[in-house]
Automatic annotation (TrEMBL):
GO BP term, example: carbohydrate catabolic process
Stretches assigned to coiled coil: none
Name of the protein described by the UniProt record: 1-phosphofructokinase
Transmembrane segments: none
GO cellular component: cytosol
Gene field: pfkB
NCBIfam families: 1-PFK (TIGR03168), pfkB (TIGR03828)
């Protein structure tokens, strides 16, 4: 069972458009409304794989009620923490060439009482969990050390914890030794404070995060693939993709794939790559089911191509 924690969830509207012309009326060819937030997406991907998941998240107002209803409809157990502010609403514009434009609202500010209620709900609902996945940005009111506190509490309870966040929240949490962190290339570069031009640069940055406390690093490198670095070594995984339709939630799907494969070693990396590759070929933030996966298209190797330039280098 996988518990997800999404401190700043959202109601996400995704519009598919032929092209985004600034200042013009753009007619959408498709529309979806989904519960959003990185941890929510992990729960959706875990549920789509037929596994049990509990989504812990603060919810408020009409958007929060709709998020809960949408999650229940997908067979996800919801552990809501009522808050005074309304859950944020986000908009994503997915162009036919795969370019995605996102508009993310800031979300409500959580009071001290609401913050503690969120931590207590995680503690209560994570008994017997295989993993806790803490994902996304922190809402207003939560200090950068909030995730670090959660990692420490999880380890004290004997539960493994995965962390997908960035900036000061990631840096603060590293000292508590999260079992796996999942940055993308931009977040990885930000964490080490230098640009990434090659897979080798990403490998060195991941090793540096391990030196700062992370027990494993699962790095998403966009179209180039994914990199896993842990105490046993390093592996690189990639997959053939026919056509990219939307990359919304692809990284979250990858993390779900990694965790449901026990979150350790090259087999878990292969599952992560398969889930991520399947997700980008689906509309909006649709999460892949087992029927969408193509394990035969995945290649995982311990021979990391350190000299390979990144398709999208991080300056």
């Amino acid at each position: 069972m996988i518990v997800t924690v999404t401190p700043n969830p959202s109601l996400d509207r995704t519009y598919e458009v032929p092209a985004l012309d600034h200042g013009e009326v753009v007619r959408a060819t498709g529309e979806r409304v989904d519960p959003g937030g990185k941890g929510v997406n992990v729960s959706r991907a875990v549920a789509a794989a037929g596994r049990r998941t509990v989504a812990v998240l603060p919810l408020g107002g009409a958007p929060g009620a709709l998020v809960a209803d949408l999650l229940h409809a997908q067979g996800i157990e919801v552990a809501p923490v009522p808050v005074a502010g309304a859950t944020r609403s986000n908009i994503a514009l997915a162009e036919s060439d795969g370019v995605l434009t996102k508009i993310n609202a800031p979300g409500p500010e959580l009071s001290a009482e609401e913050q503690e209620a969120l931590l207590e709900t995680v503690r209560r609902r994570s008994r017997g969990a295989d993993w806790i996945a803490c994902c996304g940005s922190l809402p207003r009111g939560l200090a950068p050390s909030w995730y670090a506190d959660l990692v420490a509490r999880a380890h004290a309870a004997g539960v493994r914890i995965a962390l997908d966040t960035s900036g000061p929240a990631l840096t603060a949490a590293l000292r508590e030794g999260p079992d796996v962190v999942k940055p993308n290339a931009e977040e990885l570069a930000g964490a080490v404070g230098r640009p990434l031009a090659t897979v080798g640069d990403a490998l060195k940055a991941a090793e540096e995060l391990r030196g700062l406390g992370a027990r494993a690093v699962l790095a998403s490198l966009g179209a180039d693939g994914q990199l896993l670095v842990d105490g046993a070594g390093a592996w690189f995984g990639s997959a053939r993709v026919r056509a990219v339709r939307s990359n919304v939630g692809a990284g979250d799907s990858s993390l779900a794939g990694f965790l449901i494969a026990d979150g350790t070693g090259p087999d878990a990396l292969a599952s992560a790559v398969a889930h991520g590759a399947a997700a980008v070929q689906l509309p909006g933030s649709v999460m892949p089911t087992p029927d969408d996966l193509d394990p035969a298209a995945v290649v995982v190797t311990a021979e990391v191509p350190v000299d390979r330039p990144l398709t999208e280098p991080v300056p």
